[in-house]
Design goal:
The chain is α+β, with helices and mostly antiparallel strands. It is 24% helix and 26% strand. The chain is globular.
Length: 115
């Protein structure tokens, strides 16, 4: 099942919580479908992986993002996307477990707003 194409046919009843951990794709391509699957005021917990949110020129050799400013840039990209879609970014916090090869990842907690 490809989360990029996940829809109501796959999850017929709205859910209160959606958890997202994807690789090799931006959350901006996954979140729109997640919003469709979550109840109004439902929550989405998504793992922000900076190496998949930034431009290739920002990502170091081997896909490693070490610069704190780039971590913030990736977080802001997702925050702005969520707000522009009319939803609430409740918060973002670093994951205690790093990704492959030590990449710092971040949990984003999002609340879906009613249409």
């Amino acid at each position: 099942l490809n989360a990029r194409f996940l829809g109501r046919a796959d999850v017929p009843e709205p859910v209160d919580l959606c958890v997202i951990d994807v690789s090799f794709i931006s959350l901006t391509l996954i979140l729109p479908n997640a919003f469709e699957l979550v109840t109004p005021n439902g929550m989405i917990l998504a793992l922000i992986k900076p190496q998949f949110e930034l431009e290739a020129s920002d990502v170091g050799r081997g896909g490693i993002v070490r610069e704190p400013a780039l971590h913030i840039k990736a977080q802001e990209k997702i925050r702005q996307f969520v707000v522009a879609a009319g939803h609430e970014m409740v918060g973002i916090t670093p994951s205690e477990i790093t990704g492959t090869d030590g990449n710092q990842e971040f949990f984003a907690c999002v609340r879906k707003r009613s249409a």
